Amino acid sequence: MPPTLPPPLRIAVTGGIASGKTAVTQRFEALGVRVIDADIVSRELVEPGQAALTDIEARFGAHVLQADGRLDRRTLREIVFSDAQARRDLEAILHSRVRARLRADAEAATGPYVLLAIPLLAESTYPYDWLDRVLVVDVPREVQIARVMRRDGVTRAEAELSLAAQASRAARLALADDVIINDGAVDALDAIVARLHLHYLGLAAHAAAPAPAPAPRSLRS
Length: 221
Description:
Blueprint: E1 9-15, H1 21-30, E2 34-37, H2 38-45, H3 51-60, H4 73-82, H5 84-108, E3 113-117, E4 133-138, H6 141-152, H7 156-164, H8 169-173, E5 178-181, H9 186-205, E6 217-220
Parallel strand pairs: 1-3, 1-4, 2-3, 4-5, 5-6
């Protein structure tokens, strides 16, 4: 009977708006790493026929649905942006379901390690104590503001409002086992991801023999 392989390490990737999380996860995917994206899971959970969509309609009304029965994301976003209680109610409907699905998908994954892209990890009030490690994609505030302005075509004041709606940079960094400072060139990011990939493969190889956790690694692109 072949030996039982240890489960893959479960490593979360998180970061603020315009930090470059997607650029990082795409590079890991190119190296053959499974990436489970919380945003994709969230979208799948509100497809027609899903229980979460039924609960959203019951809470917010039929006007948050399009004619074809799909969620009208713009209408719902406008509601929760201006109403803190509505936002909390939406989070109560979605977050526990997203978290459960992420965990189930991670447990079903194969390979040395799996990445879970969780943009709002620092904002979550629900425990993610089943994660093995957290990688934070960090970016200096001024670079972040410039990226948001360029990407979204907004003013500096609007970009700052978007940043203010998220967890602070310090709160995210407090979760980190590893940090990518993504303020540089594409080639540098490629090299950083390649080094972290080897690092995670090494951690996975030694997972069956527990040892003191490595010190946080901070890498600059």
